[in-house]
Design goal:
By secondary structure, the chain is α+β, with helices and mostly antiparallel strands. Helices cover 32% and strands 29% of the residues. Strand 4 and strand 5 form a beta hairpin. One of its GO terms (molecular function) is DNA binding. It comes from Nonomuraea zeae.
Length: 129
């Protein structure tokens, strides 16, 4: 059973919705270091806040990111994902010019695909298992 702190209320409903999102770098190139991951988490949190969603957990390695997002039913996940990937790619390109070598064709940092799975709010460590 979900904790009461996870329950969100809207004008016409009460809900607990979580999605596990995974973004992979273009061609799975190993791009990120610790500084990059720290900044990516900040950017992702800002975008989630703009969408009235909560980034519950963030985890990443040199070629991919895991996000656990708590979101209201009015949010379309594909729009959230497009914004997360687009804003993060643009800001990372501006703030870390050395990443330019990893932006292939049309200045894309991320692969065009992504993973989205509905979860009951389980932590990323449990989802990995």
């Amino acid at each position: 059973m979900a904790e009461h702190s996870d329950i969100r209320t809207g004008r016409h409903g009460v809900f607990v919705l979580h999605a596990h999102l995974v973004f992979v770098t273009k061609f799975r190139h190993q791009v990120f270091n610790g500084e990059h991951l720290t900044r990516l988490e900040e950017i992702m949190r800002d975008v989630c806040a703009d969408f009235e969603t909560e980034l519950r957990e963030f985890n990443g390695e040199n070629n991919h990111l895991h996000l656990l997002v708590n979101f209201p039913p009015k949010i379309t996940l594909s729009k959230l994902v497009n914004s997360l990937k687009g804003v993060s790619s643009r800001r990372m390109r501006q703030e870390f010019p050395e990443l330019a070598a990893h932006y292939y064709r049309a200045n894309k940092l991320w692969s065009g695909s992504y993973f989205a799975g509905s979860v009951g709010g389980a932590p990323i460590s449990v989802l990995r298992q």
